[in-house]
């Protein structure tokens, strides 16, 4: 359990450092402030880095205490649920462009809800899947004017 408690903040520090270094590779803008595109990713990376360091120090303080939440992560179907969600997210990323936002979101959300809730709640799964997908599509494409594939 100690490896998990220390490993997660260290992983977050590494990811934040990677994003911070990668942010400096973003090309400068041709119009307006040339450094404008850099501000948000750099600020976000520094914010994530600071939070990760705080998280690490908090975990180091409680390193020897028993934490039932971490223990519960490895019991039951939690790990399987995390793995299925990650796999469905990867599949969603691959089908997003060829199938479009609406169809791929319905497939992704439908599979996820049927996995989590089971077939007994099929009406709620379908209603949530279709309504969420259409409302999100309408909000982005019609209200915000964002072009979705």
TrEMBL record:
InterPro entries: DUF1468. Signal peptide: none annotated. The keyword Ligase does not apply. Keywords: Membrane, Transmembrane, Transmembrane helix. It comes from the Bacteria. Residues 10-149 form the DUF1468 domain. It holds the Pfam family TctB. The keyword Transmembrane applies. The chain crosses the membrane at residues 7-26, 38-57, 78-95, 101-117, 124-140. This is Tripartite tricarboxylate transporter TctB family protein. It comes from Cytobacillus oceanisediminis 2691. The lineage of its organism: Bacteria, Bacillati, Bacillota, Bacilli, Bacillales.
